[in-house]
């Protein structure tokens, strides 16, 4: 037996840029980004637009055309954008990936060309997966337009769509070419999309930084009332924590047993599915975190005061903390419509042993590998009654 | 404008192992490989078999089952293997990828489980693409069974299938978990598949190492007469050169302008397509290299003696050096059935500027960014007449 030990070090790098008015012709950022990195022959850019976002910004592609004319010596715009529907449900439909592949083929894009994706997390995931698999990876410029995408979904190294009823069953790890957060897109978000991303920021704060949690706690109502400055700060800091976690985990493509920042997500993924995607991802994450925080409290890991502060912060940001789907078939964990079946789906997706993140203190997570169903059922009850109490206080 | 500069270093490593009789129960290699790397819960292995290979080894899966029973404390065999057709043409059919995805889903594989792929390069590319995109990458163990796959296709970091009539339009860069070359599979190859892989070894020798070329030159007839020892040596050294090129290129995922070892490949890919995959990949590569070697000679880069030695080496290994498709519409490079349209397809797939590898000497390549169609047409004629001359000598 002979053996050759192969090592393949790969170094990815990308900028996450915060700007306003990306396609104003006096904003040179986008044109410079492209001019700096590609040979002239390849400076083609295909745009993929989120249908919902595009309805709120009907002039957007006209602006992009004007921008492209203004900078026509630095890049070539593919004249027809691809428009695909947003929202998690759209990730169940493989045909959107096929559509982006077809457009990449027809436009003759190559690995030094660009797919610029403007939209929410689902559209960025879907079109990002298509770009990652065409010619083994066309450069993706992600331009997220929701709070959730700007501070979480779009800054990382993953893409994907759902298949066989499983979240992100198809996808790859591939860093983007660049991420550009344009705060102007946030102003047209409906209240639910504005709010949704805040839960991921609370998640990061709970796991990583008590001071960041205090910032959100203090600004909960301001955020709910669409204070732009508070939101800019929240997005920047949340994105920064995420990027730091990816860069310094030692295992950014999760090949070993390292864990992504997925607190509250085992039940959140399942709740999205059980509510037929009526709950948006960030809304489901809020409930998922409140459940695991309540479980952590009942398990003696955090104090009553910590538990209350966290739930009240979610509430002040405008989140629901509980839905009836949490209790459906809770006595039958193996049943497909029981919230607890999400545990095995979660384990399968990450691979290896089950690992659930709980809370040891505000700012500090704790991993466990087993759960107590009885205690979880108690946590679901406790969460329900505490939410009712908070509702009564606010009424 | 604010900016976060993100760096994501990822370190992949895998072993390329040479063995004989992989699924003999006294060969612990496979079981140890799995036991060493996964938590117990995840030691599931799904096999994907190349239909053509399986016809030559009808007992193979029974052997694997016995092997799995023998090592049942180290891994769990998924009882139904997936069997998919081999050969480049099968890479045009997306349904084989879907089939592997379905099987991965049904078997509940996770990112710490394994897809073991036994077959030629096309099956390894196809099933490897499916594994790379399920759960963002299930571990692939490649067990190549042809010379071409053992010394070239299966040792590297790519996978993919064809789409829109373009070679490897869909695919990813993702290193395998391990590669295992079992020399026993080579004995049942038909003569064309035995021979096919030799052209990639000649390619590597021409670009990298004059001494390795001399080895092949001296062993051409022995190889054609199925000398196992010469073939083992050829495969090992060729795989070693490939692995070294990938590890030390500084850009293994070809994100910049670094080039894979693709000498002769712009026309080879096109010839496979123009002959409706009648030509196997290695056969097309032999012709493609002979064409670019002849062009290099006419362009004054190599001597007549070098040119003749190279063509004679290919001939002694049993290769055809010329096919009529080289001349079809040679006057109309832009025509889709002209060999020269392969230049633009090649440029598009690699991205950026056109780069063609020519030969500066035996053992030394030279990149050029422009070609002279007239000189190429002359090279096609020259190659045709020299092959006729060699045929006459051998008759």
Automatic annotation (TrEMBL), chains A, B:
Designated name of the protein: 3-dehydroquinate synthase
Alphabetical list of SUPFAM superfamilies matching this protein: Dehydroquinate synthase-like (SSF56796)
Keywords: Amino-acid biosynthesis, Aromatic amino acid biosynthesis, Cobalt, Lyase, Metal-binding, NAD
Enzyme Commission code(s) on record: 4.2.3.4
InterPro entries: Dehydroquinate_synthase (IPR050071), DHQ_synth_fam (IPR030963), DHQS/DOIS_N (IPR030960), DHQS_C (IPR056179)
NCBIfam families from the UniProt entry: PRK06203.1 (NF004852)
Cofactor: Co(2+); NAD(+)
């Amino acid at each position: 037996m002979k053996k050759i030990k192969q090592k393949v070090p790969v170094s990815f790098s990308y900028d996450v840029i915060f700007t306003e008015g990306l396609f104003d012709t006096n904003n040179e950022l986008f044109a410079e980004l492209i001019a700096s990195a590609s040979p002239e022959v390849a400076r083609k850019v295909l745009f993929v637009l989120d249908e919902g976002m595009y309805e709120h910004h009907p002039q957007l592609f006209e602006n992009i055309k004007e921008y492209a004319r203004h900078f026509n010596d630095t890049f070539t715009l593919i004249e027809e954008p691809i428009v695909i529907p947003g929202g998690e449900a759209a990730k169940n439909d493989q045909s959107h990936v096929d559509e982006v592949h077809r457009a990449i083929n027809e436009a003759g894009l190559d690995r030094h060309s660009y797919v610029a994706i403007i939209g929410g997390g689902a559209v960025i995931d879907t079109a990002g997966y298509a770009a990652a698999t065409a010619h083994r990876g066309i450069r993706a410029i992600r331009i997220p337009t929701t709070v959730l995408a700007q501070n979480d979904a779009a800054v990382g190294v993953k893409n994907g769509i759902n298949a066989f009823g499983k979240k992100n069953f198809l996808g790859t790890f591939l860093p983007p070419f660049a991420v550009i957060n344009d705060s102007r897109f946030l102003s047209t978000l409906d209240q639910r999309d504005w709010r949704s991303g805040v839960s991921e920021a609370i998640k990061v704060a709970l796991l990583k930084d008590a001071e960041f949690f205090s910032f959100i706690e203090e600004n909960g109502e301001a955020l709910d009332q669409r204070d732009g400055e508070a939101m800019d700060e929240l997005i920047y800091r949340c994105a920064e924590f995420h990027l730091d976690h990816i860069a310094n985990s030692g295992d950014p493509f999760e090949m070993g047993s390292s864990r992504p920042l997925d607190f509250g997500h085992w039940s959140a993924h399942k709740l999205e599915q059980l509510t037929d995607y009526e709950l948006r991802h960030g809304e489901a994450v809020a409930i998922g975190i409140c459940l695991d925080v309540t479980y952590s409290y009942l398990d003696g890991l955090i104090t009553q005061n910590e538990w209350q502060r966290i739930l009240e912060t979610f509430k002040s940001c405008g989140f629901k903390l509980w839905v009836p789907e949490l209790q459906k078939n809770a006595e039958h964990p193996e049943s497909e419509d029981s919230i607890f079946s999400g545990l095995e789906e979660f384990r399968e997706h990450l691979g290896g042993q089950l690992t659930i993140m709980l809370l040891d203190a505000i700012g500090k997570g704790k991993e466990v590998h087993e759960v107590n169903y009885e205690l979880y059922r108690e946590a679901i009850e406790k969460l329900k009654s505490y939410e009712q109490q908070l509702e009564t206080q606010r009424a």
